[in-house]
Amino acid sequence: MDLGGDVLVYNEILTPTTPYGLSSCTSHHQPNLELQQPIIMKVVFLVCVLAAVVYSHPHDSHYTDKYDNIDLDEILNNKKILTSYINCCLDLGKCTPDGKELKSHIREALENKCGKCTEAQKNGTRKVMTHLINFEPDYWNQLCAKYDPEGKYKAMYEKEYKTLVH
């Protein structure tokens, strides 16, 4: 089985060869930088554009609005449901998906006055905090002990929501 001729033709197509089938190229080809420079510039530009898109994307500017339509009155007016949410936030019970989401943002929301909250979340936070401060002080104090152990925000929120009625 003689593949030498086929291989020689194959080699002749890809690289010039001597009559012995050896490559006539004895040195490595130097890349043509003039041809590569526009490609490099395009790649650099593309990377810069992608970085700008990633860092300017508002995915971190607000919390998810997936749970913005939850009926807070139903939760606040049902001691059993309210207790399950409080227990979730205090790590004393299981969490629903919305309870888990809430729990993951409580500390940050307290610290920055709900700065990443949507408008619905700000209204909901006001309603819940007003209810807890005025009607569920034991729950309020337990939550403050966990999420504001130094008491940095407790007095501020109590002053703001103590007299409000939702």
Q: What is the count of structural domains?
A: 2
Major pleated sheet: none
- Helix and strand element order: HHHHHHHH
Uncertain ranges: 6-15, 48-58
CATH-derived architecture of the largest domain = Orthogonal Bundle
Name given to the CATH homologous superfamily of the largest domain:
Insect odorant-binding protein A10/Ejaculatory bulb-specific protein 3
CATH class of the largest domain: Mainly Alpha
- Fraction in beta strands: under 5%
Rg on CA atoms, Å: 33 Å
CATH names the topology of the largest domain as Antennal chemosensory protein a6
The global form is: elongated
Provide a count of the helices.
Answer: 8
Helix-residue proportion: 55-70%
Mean pLDDT value: 76
Number of strands: 0
Structure classification? mainly alpha
Distance between the termini: 92 Å
InterPro entries: A10/PebIII (IPR005055), OS_D_A10/PebIII_sf (IPR036682)
Pfam families: OS-D (PF03392)
Tell me the layout of helices and strands:
Elements: H1 4-14, H2 33-56, H3 72-76, H4 79-89, H5 97-111, H6 119-135, H7 137-147, H8 154-161
Helix pairs in contact: 6-7
InterPro entries: A10/PebIII, OS_D_A10/PebIII_sf
Pfam families: OS-D (PF03392)
Summarize it.
This protein has 166 residues and is mainly alpha-helical.
What does this structure look like?
- It is built from eight helices and no strands.
- With 166 residues, the protein is an all-alpha fold.
- The chain is elongated.
- The protein folds into two domains: 1-28, no CATH class; 72-161, Insect odorant-binding protein A10/Ejaculatory bulb-specific protein 3 (Antennal chemosensory protein a6, Orthogonal Bundle), CATH 1.10.2080.10.
- Helix 6 crosses helix 7.
- The protein is 61% helix and 0% strand.
